[in-house]
Amino acid sequence: MKDIKAIRGRYYIHGLIQEGEHEHQDFKFAITDAPKIAHSISAFANNDGGHLLIGVRDNGSVAGVRSDEDIYMIEQAALMYCRPAQKVEITAFAVEAGAIVVRARIPKAEKRPVYARDTDGSWRAYFRVKDENIVAHPVMLAAWERMARGGDTLFALSQAETALLTYLDEWGMTTVDRYMTGAHISRATATDIVARLYAMGIIDFSYTGSEFVIVRK
C-alpha cells in the first residue's frame, strides 16, 4: 500500500464489521473483477449510498488489503464500468498486526439511474437490497429518468391514477403487472403513471425478496 497512507482505525473498522453486511455495507476480501465491483457501485449509488470494506472476508475476519491493485480496480470500476462515472472516496485504515482495510465510500447518485457494464458489454442498473445487489426493475428506471429530467408538478389525478392510490391505501402494495391488469391499461401507460407519481414523491418502491412492488409513501 505504497500509494495511500493508512490512518488508525482499529476500533472504527471492527465496529463496522460487527454490523455485518447490509443495505449500506459490503465486505470484499479482494478486488479481482472490475465489472462485478461496478455492480456494487451502481447498487449503492442508486440507493442511499454505502461503502465497501476491502480486506475483510465474508465471515467478518480481517485479511487486509494485499496490493495497491485493489484500489486501482475500484477506481477503474467507478470511472470505466459505471455510466455515468461515479466518485468513490477511498480511505485506508491500519487495523491490526500490520493489516490495512480500505473503505470505499460510494455516495448516493445525484441523478439516477447509474448503470454498470457487464462482462458481455451490456449495461444494467442495480439497486441495493439488504446485502444483495438486485437488477433494478424497468419501472424504477423510468421513474429515476423522469426525476432526472426534473420530475413533475402537481396535476389533477386521472381515474387510473386515483385507482392506484386507492388500492395502495387499502392493500399496501402492488406490482406494475397487477396494476395494469386491474386498471385495464397498457404497460406503457402504467409505467408512465407510476413514474410520474414516484417523481412527485407520492409512491415508492420496495423489494419483497422476490419482486419489486409499488408502495405508498
UniProtKB/TrEMBL annotation:
Keyword Protein biosynthesis: no
Protein's UniProt keywords contain Nucleotide-binding: yes
Signal peptide: none
Domain (Schlafen AlbA-2) ranges: 21-133
GO molecular function terms noted in the UniProt entry: ATP binding
One Pfam family here: SLFN_AlbA_2
Keywords of this entry: ATP-binding, Nucleotide-binding
PANTHER family, per the entry: GLPR-RELATED TRANSCRIPTIONAL REPRESSOR (PTHR30595), SCHLAFEN ALBA-2 DOMAIN-CONTAINING PROTEIN (PTHR30595:SF6)
The protein, known as: ATP-binding protein
